[in-house]
Amino acid sequence: MFNKLKDKLSNFKQSIGKTIDEKAVDLEEPVVESVEVPAEELVAEPIEESVIPEEKTSTPEASTTPVVQPESKPSFKQKIGFAQKAKALVFEREVILDEGDISDSLWELEVALLESDIAITVAEAIVEAVKAELVGSRKKIGSNTGEHVEQALRTAIYNVMSANVFDLDEYIEKADKPVHIVFIGINGTGKTTTISKMAKRLKDMKYSVVIAAGDTFRAGAIDQIAIHAERIGVKLIKHQEGGDPAAVVYDAVQHAKAHNVDVILSDTAGRMHTNVNLMAQLEKVCRVSTPDLIIFVDEAVAGNDAVERAEQFNAAVPIDGSILTKTDADSKGGAAISIAYITGKPILFLGMGQGYDDLRKFDPQWFVDQLFE
Ligand SMILES: Nc1nc2c(ncn2[C@@H]2O[C@H](COP(=O)(O)OP(=O)(O)OP(=O)(O)O)[C@@H](O)[C@H]2O)c(=O)[nH]1
Predict the structure, then answer these.
(1) Which of 2, 68, 78, 266 could bond to 212 as cystine, CB 3.0-4.6 Å?
(2) What fold, for 168-363?
(3) Complex prediction ipTM
(4) pTM
């Protein structure tokens, strides 16, 4: 999963790490900072000899500062004499990154993110966040560069992915029943399979479930979902092929109310967001039986296309969240990283295989961990 993206992030870590290490090598001698110390402080307390390590006094920098010869240690009186203009020396072995140091690597990162199908505004947001974290940061020479860079990347990716995180389980638990959830999206992305996985999951959680066979448009769609419903052991409400999907969904809601069913999962016909008639039909379904939640389903492997579709569906029928299917086959991770940021609605679940149990509740922390494992 996400192997190409993992490689690209790892390359970025190495590229920045190399920059930092090269800068560290350039600093053959430690950086010496001079700090003015008020005379009173020095008079009150004699200068600690340890403040001025002997080996540093032979460096070129040290020769420009008040000279303290290690071989002829000054007496306490002499130290007091120096006090008027004395400076304490602070020795540090650190690299401070400036923008110029990492601009090439940041550009490489942006290109890598775009190549991974991450939407451009999301890629820019990640690069900006990484830059803000790294530029000006003090990096101890010899400490673990990779860890520092990885943490900056982790935080940036986590932040773009965790927009309006929403817990569906908690919602269903607390909501008045029945809870009506409508699934929308284009053909063939795994909507029907996802509804079946969700029905199985809810049934395992001891909720009663009814499925509405709202895809009356595609030949065979009703039979397909009927097979799933039978296997899982949940009730299906269906009409004839070509019937009005709004009527099917309405019947399913009435059935749920009459039989105290907890959750209604409504399938809808796959449609292109550009198909005006089908989008109008979808709006009708949502008008006739107002759903509590509308979930957009698309396949992670579609990358940017999935994100654009989510945006367009969201404009027509405001969604509450997304489910990305086929993440098990996705090497780029772009849709998963971009979709919540672009729509402002969270990812709720990831489809991770063809089995009924291959549905994973989305957790941005888990996702980020996968990228760096
Ligand atoms: N590898 C993998 N395959 C999946 C996943 N989810 C669904 N599929 C497969 O994708 C194919 C299409 O799934 P469907 O559920 O029929 O798609 P749909 O969106 O309902 O399609 P329409 O009925 O045409 O609207 C099927 O072969 C599924 O088994 C997933 O998470 N991983």
Answers:
(1) 266
(2) Rossmann fold (3.40.50)
(3) 0.96
(4) 0.81
